[in-house]
Amino acid sequence: MTTILTYPFKKLPTTSKWALRFAIRPLSCSSQLRAAPAVQTKTKKTLAKPNIRNVVVVDGVRTPFLLSGTSYKDLMPHDLARAALTGLLHRTSVPKEVVDYIIFGTVIQEVKTSNVAREAALGAGFSDKTPAHTVTMACISANQAMTTGVGLIASGQCDVIVAGGVELMSDIPIRHSRKMRKLMLDLNKAKSMGQRLSLISKFRLNFLAPELPAVAEFSTSETMGHSADRLAAAFAVSRLEQDEYALRSHSLAKKAQDEGLLSDVVPFRVPGKDTVTKDNGIRPSSLEQMAKLKPAFIKPYGTVTAANSSFLTDGASAMLIMAEEKALAMGYKPKAYLRDFMYVSQDPKDQLLLGPTYATPKVLEKAGLTMNDIDAFEFHEAFSGQILANFKAMDSDWFAENYMGRKTKVGLPPLEKFNNWGGSLSLGHPFGATGCRLVMAAANRLRKEGGQYGLVAACAAGGQVRERGTN
Amino acid sequence: MVACRAIGILSRFSAFRILRSRGYICRNFTGSSALLTRTHINYGVKGDVAVVRINSPNSKVNTLSKELHSEFTEVMNEIWASDQIRSAVLISSKPGCFIAGADINMLSACKTLQEVTQLSQEAQRILEKLEKSPKPVVAAINGSCLGGGLELAISCQYRIATKDRKTVLGVPEVLLGALPGAGGTQRLPKMVGVPAALDMMLTGRNIRADRAKKMGLVDQLVEPLGPGLKPPEERTMEYLEEVAITFAKGLADKKISPKRNKGLVEKLTAYAMTIPFVRQQVYKKVEEKVRKQTKGLYPAPLKIIDVVKTGIEQGSDAGYLSESQKFGELVMTKESKALMGLYHGQVLCKKNKFGAPQKDVKHLAILGAGLMGAGIAQVSVDKGLKTILKDATLTGLDRGQQQVFKGLNDKVKKKALTSFERDSIFSNLTGQLDYQGFEKADMVIEAVFEDLSLKHRVLKEVEAVIPDHCIFASNTSALPISEIAAVSKRPEKVIGMHYFSPVDKMQLLEIITTEKTSRDTSASAVAVGLKQGKVIIVVKDGPGFYTTRCLAPMMSEVIRILQEGVDPKKLDSLTTSFGFPVGAATLVDEVGVDVAKHVAEDLGKVFGERFGGGNPELLTQMVSKGFLGRKSGKGFYIYQEGVKRKDLNSDMDSILASLKLPPKSEVSSDEDIQFRLVTRFVNEAVMCLQEGILATPAEGDIGAVFGLGFPPCLGGPFRFVDLYGAQKIVDRLKKYEAAYGKQFTPCQLLADHANSPNKKFYQ
């Protein structure tokens, strides 16, 4: 799991240099400013850096995230990705030919569409002259897609980028065993009947045993859930705490869904089926109900259960990123600036899911901010236990001293600013697509709540985390 | 059937590894009243669960001593008497050790068989009470759970173990010539089945936690935790305790059943073992195999089978009685004393008597990627040393790197490593043909061909590129280090490190210091050796050092015996039946005939007549015909890839015939032949001590057993002299001296020991 990002949305303070700069531009972005005067009180400094282009998020969308095996089960990943792209085109009305580059993240690749970004883009009607590539970095693949885009824009290579991610867990590549594959490949090359027969005679029934992809670390062979359970135990996170946190996530998601706050969701008309309009994994339950579940990984005494873990999800997301001047020139009112980001990595065995703890202080320092400056936190919730373990790590001087080389603890993000519209536990976690959802949630929350800075963080398999801040 | 697996491999002494590095500590227990303050055990109550913590004071490990026994009894009585307490958890306060076994010093201190038997019976009594405890007791195991520790654990109602690498379970008593004397012989068969129990008891092997779970030896596993709010080890212990407490509660509430579901194979085995005929067959098979492997030299395995049999056929009472009696008998045997002596010696040779070196060796360079060089590389990279392997040719280098990879990959196949760990370990190795990177080396070990001028050349080349602090170690089996160091610009940094082949299997490392070698250089060499997992003896420089020098006269005798017309197969069987793991003729083949010739010539020149006996011409002729031993496919035997059976090399007949000597009938009985070999070995070993090559008899015993395969049941040459009697050995030597002359003249120190029966190498 993964990831992260932070990001703040910048209000345009009338007194700052920023505002001055804006003022010279005959752009309508000031209207946005005026539209939210009530929020103006919280003006903070800008994070703009000299000599570096500002990168903005124009807007972002996602398909509804569905439990795998439900309405999307007959689709292919590029179908979902295409839906996100068309949704984005529709939402932003961006002319297709303006887009310089398309980047998508994905984790479990469909072999037929290994560059899923390109397949989806062609299908969505983008120009065949627009290059596209696909990146993978476990659960922060979409974050990688976005930051790749940020890099391309900041370095002046591109002006307009579409970044996104997709995951279809309803269908995963299950392979023939290596022995069977070898036999089939050799058969291909066999020239005579004799050669073929001799190859066929080598066939054994056990060749047919399939190879399943596992949600496990290659280096340690440990599954994510197992790792999360051990992490929770290492930080002494109880089962009850985990269930309570999961319940919070589901309740907040339900509330956000009911209030129509999840505005990044675009309806998806599934061919041959009903149109899907909302996420279907949000199911607030009761603590009593959750307490009945048996541990899913460390049996029989573990604490991670189906109810306090994120579920296997199908979904796709996409986001339009531009150089600020380009966006303004095109008449957009950007939703957020993407400012700083940071990837970190740790021991894949014992600290796999602690990325947010490591990355948060670093990205804050880089941006010159403190925990208190952040108005919206969006952390990826792989497991309740993982989030709570990160909280405990961030709240521990001992951990900071012994493992992070810091003198004092990172500090806790205030819960009232944390994942207020639900998180991966409740909304779902299509590995490759979650990153964009986190960023859009942070951006939309900042606008809604009148904040200025957001911080997005996530943990990823391989122990990578990245984090990014924007103002 | 299954029992075929159940066999102890006593000759394979590597099993001793089990005990190594668990530093044994003689405690000065001051006998403060245990009533007032308990020093070994204390307990606290959490809810209605008593948590009993074992913590032997001033020691890295917990051992079952008398004090611990009595405190344990007290504590358990309190727990049983308390109304508040409904169940208990047994855990150690030491993260790396549950209980490492019985206190060996306590056993050694026993003067009579009755004393030992009584100790065993006391332990049996308390464990029986524990087994019948009305309140469930959960053993929470992290770290070694061996011998009496495991016997204690299997008396509990439930066992939970961490899946840590340090967590091993086993009953290694057999390796000390004893048997599990606290009910283990009776409980283990019931718990894991007769075949598996016999296997454990006869081999003394360590069982890792996951395997133990499969066997039914433990009921639950707990994964070790990573960093959290406390150091990982500490938190893992806490977590283990928390989990154990939940299970203790569950057991007390009858929500959890201590019975486990057996697999089909297990059920079938268990069923088969209820048929008396099958049982008899199993006993017979196992006994046969034990007899074959121990050659009757080790009494413990047969007694173990006997005790297990008694328990099954005649009931537990008879079994426990037999166990305690046989335990007493075994502990009193010479074999057990010899093996325990080796154990103590080994502990001693696992310490760095020179203290910590000024600079830790982190970068190692090895010259020569032959069997030795690659072997040294293998045991270095897996300990995290950055290692350069340099050879003169690409083919040589390639072969060496393949050897290292294969060694690591074999561990993956045995599941001791993951393929990922293998790759990451293998990345510590750099193979190259030049001296690039030597400027960073902290130590260079040369393992080039045994040729003085070649060694001189590489020494000079290396000294030109290495930094000032870098140590130059020579892996040679016979060339005097001072001669190698003669051309060095800084002889204080030159030392000998004599490894034994195959390096990854042989535990011994003989370190050779010259007059000029600095103390810090020695400290560094020992530190590296210890890191590589070696048992280390430090000896003074001299021709053949200690090990090669002891072996040479024996080898000379081997040649004479062959010349006298004894068939190599017969010679092999005579030596193995004396307790050597490898027959004498086979040993020559394994070492390499050319190497043997080289050593024989070199040492023959220095020591003259004393090293004579056999005609070195035999080796010379073999070398000229290309019979170099295993490496060339032919020596005394013929070696073929994939063929296990060894046939005699019939081409040797003509060589042997041409050098035939008439046997002397008065000294050619089987026993005489064995003693001719052994007494020459022992005499030379004692002479090494006399001349100061060896610092202590203990190092001499360890070197002989671990490096040269001296029979472990005899405990090494010095222990052998003590236990067998110096006088009897001198008498033998004199008898052979009369037949052959000076080669058998007893050395002064040995004669002194013979003259004053109170003189012992081990007091």
Total domain units of chain B? 3
Task: Based on Cα principal axes, name the global outline of chain B.
Answer: globular
Oligomeric form of this entry?
Answer: heterodimer
What portion of residues of chain B is helical?
Answer: 40-55%
Organism (chain A): Papio anubis
Subcellular location (chain A): Endoplasmic reticulum; Mitochondrion inner membrane; Mitochondrion outer membrane
Protein name (chain A): Trifunctional enzyme subunit beta, mitochondrial
Catalytic activity (chain A): an acyl-CoA + acetyl-CoA = a 3-oxoacyl-CoA + CoA; tetradecanoyl-CoA + acetyl-CoA = 3-oxohexadecanoyl-CoA + CoA; hexanoyl-CoA + acetyl-CoA = 3-oxooctanoyl-CoA + CoA; decanoyl-CoA + acetyl-CoA = 3-oxododecanoyl-CoA + CoA
Describe this structure in words.
The complex is a heterodimer of chains A (471) and B (763). With 471 residues, chain A is an alpha+beta fold. Chain A is 35% helix and 15% strand. In chain A, the strands form three sheets. In chain A, strands 1, 2, 3, 4, 5, 8 and 9 form a seven-stranded mixed β-sheet that branches. In chain A, strands 10-13-12-11 form a four-stranded mixed β-sheet, with helices on both faces. The relative contact order of chain A is 0.24. Chain B contains 30 helices and 20 strands. The interface between A and B is medium-sized, with 25 and 18 residues.
